[in-house]
Structures are given as structure tokens and as C-alpha cells.
Amino acid sequence: MAIMFPPPTIPPGEIQAAMRARGFAVLAPADVAALCGCTLEELDRLGESWDRLPPDTYLRDGGRYRRRRHSCFVADDAGIEQVAHRAHWQPREYNALHGGMRRWFEPVEPEIVEQPAWSALLRGLTSVWASLRPEPRWHIEAHQFRIDTSDGIGRPTPEGAHRDGVDYVAVLMVGREAIKGGETRVFQADGPDGQRFTLSEPWSLLLLDDARVIHESTPIQPVSGHGHRDTLVLTWRAEGFLGD
Hints:
The chain is of the alpha+beta class. It contains five helices and twelve strands. The protein has helices at residues 15-22, 29-36, 40-47, 110-113, 116-132, and strands at 24-27, 66-76, 79-82, 138-148, 168-177, 179-181, 184-188, 194-197, 205-209, 213-217, 220-222, 228-237.
């Protein structure tokens, strides 16, 4: 039986102190909803779209275990605005497996972007980063991921422990079904300290300062039949989108 370490959740009022002290913070689902000004029921209505994610055709390890969508947004004083669809790009120094590729994924479905909970998430989490580092504009990339066990094993982070090359990262657990594994690991980028835990509750949240920590999620395996792990990964970068 796999051992699952509980996530080190904190109340929203302690986010700034935790980010400054450790470079990461974890919130429970109810606190995520409260922070973003929406309900868990509204967030749950976003979740059905993960059943419609198309396959990721760019996996260089030959796997068939990942499905995803990707869209980009800009946040400023005027609010949140979706920008023209664009490729996802990372330099090789941050992603040794897929860096240097312009990867064109299908966009997040319009009916999902139009839901109140979607914009509430982007606004609420942008306000967290703005409280730590005021910027006139944030460039946000949104990634819907489903990692499944169609190959017998699924790899949430096939590139290994990594940074994303942005300023801040938010990882939201959307759901886990019939799997074991998928442990989250966060390490100091320039030191030996780290922490391991499993995000299991839908809409639990991991916040990361990308300059200070590296992160990974361990592979998943089925416990019965066919399983999967769904996440929403959001990144914020002040100096434009990577690849501009």
C-alpha cells in the first residue's frame, strides 16, 4: 500500500509569509474558492472539460499517456484578457526533454474560459502575485493536463525535477481516479531542503516561486482498470511570454 504524505496546507492569510520564507505554499480547496471569490461547485463545473482533452503529440519519450490544452492571457489594471492563440515554448535550460520546440496545442474550450470560475481563478491568483511583486502586466499561460495509465504508467513531469522559466506557478489538482503515485516534490533550487506530499483533493493548490524552487510529480500507476490524474497548471511571467 502506497504511503501518502498529507499536503502542508496553510490559511490564505499566511501565503505571503510562506512564499517569502520557503518559496512555496499549499492551500486547501475551500480556501482556494474563498481566495478567488467563487464556490467549489463552480470550480467543479470546469472539471468536465478534462474528459475532452486531445492527445499530446509532442512527447519525446514515445509515450501516449498525456492529454492537454493550452491558452494564454494577459492580466493588467483593465482585467483579464485572452490573447491570440500561440505556441507553448520553453528554453532547453528549463526543459531538457521538450525545450526548444514550438508546441501547438489545442486551446482551452471557449465555454470553459467563459465560465465565471475560470476568470475568478485567474483574477484571484494574479492578486496573490501582485501582493508579492507589483507589476503593470502579467502574462499567463494556462495548461490543462490529463495523465493516464494507458501505457501502464503515466509521467506527470517526464522532464524530471525542473523550473518552468517563469516568475510564478500555480498547480491545481482537478481530480485523481484509480491511481497510485503522483506525489508532489518541491526542492530548494540552490539548497538541499525539500518536501514531499500528495495533492489528492479536487481544487487543492500548490503555489511556487519559480526562481527559488524546483518541482516534480512522480509517475502514476493504475490501482484498478484505467486511471488518470487531472491538473490545471497556470504560470505568470512579467516580461512577456516565453518565446517572444
